[in-house]
Amino acid sequence: DHHERKRKKESREAHERSHKAKKLIGLKAKLYHKQRYAEKIQMKKTIKMHEERKTKKKNDEKTPEGAVPAYLLDREGQSRAKVLSNMIKQKRKEKAGKWEVPLPKVRAQGETEVLKVIRTGKRQKKAWKRMVTKVCFVGDGFTRKPPKYERFIRPMGLRFKKAHVTHPELKATFCLPILGVKKNPSSPLYTSLGVITKGTVVEVNVSELGLVTQGGKVIWGKYAQVTNNPENDGCINAVLLV
Amino acid sequence: MSSEDVERLLIQFQDENGEILGSPFDVPLDITPDKLQLVCNALLQKISYSPVPLAFFVHGEVEVVSSLESCVKALGVETEQVLPVVYQPQAVFRVRAVARCTSTLQGHSEAVISVAFSPTGKYLASGSGDTTVRFWDLTTETPQHTSRGHTHWVLSIAWSPDGKKLASGCKNSQICLWDPVTGAQMGKTLTGHTKWITWLCWEPLHLNPECRYLASSSKDGSIRIWDTVLGRCEKILTGHTQSVTCVKWGGDGLLYTSSQDRTVKVWRAKDGVQCRTLQGHAHWVNTLALSTDYVLRTGAFEPATATVNPQDLTGSLEELKERALERYNKVRGSAPERLVSGSDDFTLFLWNPAQDKKPLARMTGHSALVNEVLFSPDTRLFASASFDKSIKIWDGRTGKYLTSLRGHVASVYQIAWSADSRLLVSGSSDSTLKVWDIKSGKLNMDLPGHADEVYAVDWSPDGQRVASGGKDKCLRIWRR
């Protein structure tokens, strides 16, 4: 009982205090207000101290540890333990056949989304033709099949030859010609058609960059993965797989 | 069977530039390099008075090691025609390999990031992560001065070519000048860069004997030329779009800078105008090396005249300038300076920056990024140290691959040549230093001792000592 009463009395204190502050007049009020002001200053100080503890301040005085020479500054040093575990992880991945790509999971595009049914025939009843609604790549020597027999139509407006490829380490973007579509994650049918959607791995011509192999041969083709939806943007953005 | 009927051969001595010495000589096929040396010296006696050690190369490619016969057989040369044999004078003095650690100098409270001997080899300075620059007394191998003034890690230090000043740049983009004799700061701190200083380079002695101008490159992509007497910035060279990794002041009044934006730019030092942009690299350009680097660093000091106790340079400014100019012209020869750039794309390019925009050669072979490139003091070879644990030696004139030095078990960070170009010392992340013999291409000395990665290595110009500093906060001095 005593605890209950004590608890309730303490919770009433706030109301009584505010009642006093409002209703006191005269000398008593002055004394009370002065005392209250001093109390409030102390309260504000403690609150501020607690706030400071929560926020992180930039430590200006001490020089940070881990001094490295200038040639190591822009590089992330790998701790030795990490190197070993990375090696093991890479071996496991190689065994499993999984390769590291910037976008590992992409939304699979269904046939109704990528291919549009084109009706043909005198009564517009035949529905065996399909038109690709996404951006695609056709090679240099591409010639259409005779229109009467072609099943998949790839419109000229959606054919692209160049892609904007970003080098992940240099953070520079180059406009490079596409050599071919390597793999479309949604379906092998799209790969053979040359459909480019988000997540497709494309081969691009990188002779512009000037990369060289150890033997001295110039590298002229590299893989890049598409990172945007080209049919919405009108351009193909990709990131180079180094 | 008697060996009296040995085949004879006609050889013609040529020097490196192709000039013919004397007339064709008829020599037996089993002649050794010593005898060739005697003959050649006899021919050269018209020019110099003391015998010079020489190395001989048949057709300028294959070195005559045991006898002329083996070279002729290896090359398959016709013995009917006159065979051109190129002679190369080697350094008269020999630097002995360092074998033992004579002292471990403690004092720094953080990792030692940069180490440099003064041009005469008298003083040793080291910059560290504890923001101090320390000077060390080499005769007693004890600390001499501790210079405080920087507020962040001292990333690069550079001695002026006359050895009277030391410039140091820190991560807070400040540059301070120090007097090695007293350890006090000279002048005021030079500020102006907005990001950390990556490299410092003084103007060569033969262009200005009072060693007044200093070039500094920074991560903010600009290069500033400072007047150290007045303590202010003279010129700002902008043009690079990313961090400038290295700046070198050439002996012909040109400045060469390499940057992370994959280009190397050539500037005129007089008015700060950009002359040329050398493109070709596919990733950051980490380092530059000039063929005349060593002679510009030592200025008027001739390593052959070094004594056991290193002395200061004596003589008036005019004398020093003349001596430096003479040494520079001798090393440079008739061809202009050559420049080698090493990059993160695992390749190196050899350029003739004063004349051509196109590279002379592209050197591939490394399987990881190239961290440092250095020409040998006689400019005949250059070495590239890479994170793939190997050092490769290339011909200094054509860029042809010569040999690989393998032995380190982790990335090689820095290298230093001995003053006679016969030995090379390399410091690596595996905490050892290794001394390599260039002639045989083999390891000469393995110097373990550091407790952690070795960040900086330097060989004194008088050839007596090697200093190395690393992550374990100790500076080690190695001697014979």
From TrEMBL, chain A:
Keyword Nucleus part of the UniProt annotation: yes
InterPro entries to which the protein is assigned, alphabetical: NSA2_fam, Ribosomal_Se8/biogenesis_NSA2
Name under which the protein is recorded: Ribosome biogenesis protein NSA2 homolog
Similarity comment: family membership: Belongs to the eukaryotic ribosomal protein eS8 family. Ribosome biogenesis protein NSA2 subfamily.
Protein species of origin: Amphilophus citrinellus (Midas cichlid)
Stretch list, region Disordered: 1-21, 44-64
UniProt subunit comment: Component of the pre-66S ribosomal particle.
Biological role: Involved in the biogenesis of the 60S ribosomal subunit. May play a part in the quality control of pre-60S particles.
GO biological process: ribosomal large subunit biogenesis; rRNA processing
Gene3D superfamilies: 2.40.10.310
Alphabetic keyword roster: Nucleus, Ribonucleoprotein, Ribosome biogenesis, rRNA processing
Keyword Ribonucleoprotein: yes
Compartment annotation: Nucleus, Nucleolus
Gene Ontology CC terms: nucleolus; preribosome
Superkingdom per UniProt: Eukaryota
From TrEMBL, chain B:
CDD domains: WD40
One record GO biological process: Notch signaling pathway
Origin superkingdom: Eukaryota
Subcellular location: Nucleus, Nucleolus
Main subcellular localisation: nucleus
Keywords of this entry: Notch signaling pathway, Nucleus, Repeat, WD repeat
Keyword Repeat: yes
Residue windows of the WD repeats: 105-146, 147-179, 190-227, 237-277, 363-404, 405-446, 447-480
Name this protein carries in UniProt: Notchless protein homolog 1
